[in-house]
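lol ok so funny story. i was supposed to be doing the assay writeup but got distracted and ended up predicting the structure for this chain instead. priorities right. anyway since i did it might as well share w the group, maybe its usefull for someone
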Amino acid sequence: MPMTGLGYTTHNQPSLDSAGILPRDAKDIAVREWHRLTDDLARVRAEIAELRSQEHALEAQVEAWNVILSAGGSGTNSDGDVSESHATEDNATLATPQESADAVVDLLREIGEPMHYSLIYDTLRSRGMEVRGKNPPSVLLARFFGDARLERVGQGTYQIKAAEEVQENE
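and the output, tada:
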């Protein structure tokens, strides 16, 4: 009776001989099957990792749009939370959207290589920039997302555009 698995069918599973050793042909089959299964497992794990990455990127984009939509509204977002533009504490210094975008551009020029927006946020935060909201890295992303001086080079990863590209877009 054939046995089925992840897209394959096997007949007559190998059996051990009286000494508990697989016959040579059966051992070759078992080794090939083991390699196939480990390859399948690695492929599935890679697909899961890619899907998780896509999930995080989409969550960040949704959060960025939540911030954009709430900034022009009544001061609260759809969850009733105070929007970032209205959330202040005594003596708190918050970066404006333009200051945030300028700081991102300055940082990327200083670093000289692409960075993920969450690392950009962490670096600027460690330097004293305060960005508020439900998800501050996404708030920062919303502030520099459309900046003509920057380009997206990967999921959530940005770099400075070449000087000639920036001049063409202005």
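The chain has one domain: 48-169. The two ends are 70 Å apart (CA to CA).
back to the writeup now i swear
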